[in-house]
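Example 3.2
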Amino acid sequence: MQREQIVGLLIAERDRLNRAIEALGGSSRAAKAAAKPAKAAAAAAPAPARKKRKPRTAAQRKAQSERMRQFWAARRKQQAKKAK
């Protein structure tokens, strides 16, 4: 056999082994190299727009404040009962 043929066979065997490793979930240099362009493309895509909340009125904020004040008062009352 000539040297070029032997090198060609070895390269083909290496490629076959790399594909088998990738199929089993491992990583190889070829898999890492192939993944880099995909990561770059994903990073370049714009992020989806976030939904904005409706602004609350002063009355809504006051009502929420009162609900939370009552909630924390009840919570302190429970803690006091547990401590006794």
